[in-house]
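FORM 7B: Structural annotation worksheet

SECTION A. Query
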Amino acid sequence: MEKAKNSGNVVILLAHPNFKESQANKALIDAVKDIPGVVILDLYAKPFDAEAHKKILSEAKAVVFQFPFYWASAPSQLKKWLDEIFTPLAQTEVVKGKPLMVATTTGSEYEAYRSGGRNHFTMDELLRPYQLTANHSGMVWQTPHVVYGVATPAGAENVKEGAKAYRQRIEALLKK
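SECTION B. Predicted structure
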């Protein structure tokens, strides 16, 4: 799922263990895959190539971690990528100063991610480890893009609106 690599790309690191069956994350990717300058790396598609990923990141204008949110985190392949590929690059010019955004989808509605809500924490609180990653590596944390309620009766509409807004966010990152 890699696209042509040229300077000033937005690199989307897609971490979905069953992307072919995905509806929400697939809709997000479908909304942005035709934008010139978007590079999509499916972390579950093939083994990591450290040199290739370093080159792609060095040419990136911004980085996006995209994944379905479950068990208060991302799927394990993103953590593996962070450990194996990102850690040696953290605090280097390869990533320093670049925007980092998380794009995620939740089965539960927005209200579940409030203080006192069913999940007891806000999404900002739950995504703090990724914000820490950005801060520690000298990247610029961006407000996360969260599509809530994909498993609710309003799920299809939430995904449709979320995909439209995601495209706008990615286009804005390309203009920075």
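SECTION C. Observations
The two ends are 24 Å apart (CA to CA). The domain at 9-175 is CATH 3.40.50.360 (Rossmann fold).

SECTION D. Sign-off
Analyst initials: ____
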